[in-house]
Write a structure and sequence with these properties.
alpha+beta
Length: 134
């Protein structure tokens, strides 16, 4: 007689566990997506700073806007530029010995998990500083 009363136990346990499992899987997908795109933004800032520091000696103060434009294009080409991750800003600051490149991109959340925490989009920011080559 005891086995008849336990007939629906597996279904009830499954109904309790499946939402938690879905929540965990969606969270892994979302945070993996965000982490991957944050890494791309960091790499774009690094690539821009490296490019600018290597090519800075070729440019003097009168043609510095050319270096900034070229660096900005390098960073934009390296940033995730799909419809889900539009570019917000790319800033380049040059001092006497350093180049600082700041890149930002919005990353659209894929599932409800990160969307609940961050809203519809997460803003990835990165700043990279590189010494000017001599």
């Amino acid at each position: 007689m005891k086995k008849r009363r336990e007939k629906g136990q597996a279904m009830v346990e499954f109904a309790i566990v499946i939402p938690l499992l879905i929540f965990i899987v969606c969270g892994m997908i979302d945070f993996g997506w965000i982490y991957s795109n944050v890494y791309k933004v960091e790499d774009a800032a690094f690539t821009g700073a490296r490019y600018a520091s290597i090519h800075a000696p070729e440019h003097d103060a009168t043609t510095d806007s050319t270096l900034v434009g070229e660096t900005r294009q390098i960073v934009r080409d390296s940033l995730p530029t799909t419809k889900t991750a539009p570019i917000i800003t790319v800033n380049i600051n040059r001092t006497d010995k350093n180049i600082r490149v700041h890149a930002e991109a919005k990353i659209k959340c894929l599932t409800f998990v990160a969307g609940t925490i961050f809203g519809d989009e997460y803003t990835a920011k990165s700043t990279s500083v590189s010494s000017i080559a001599e």
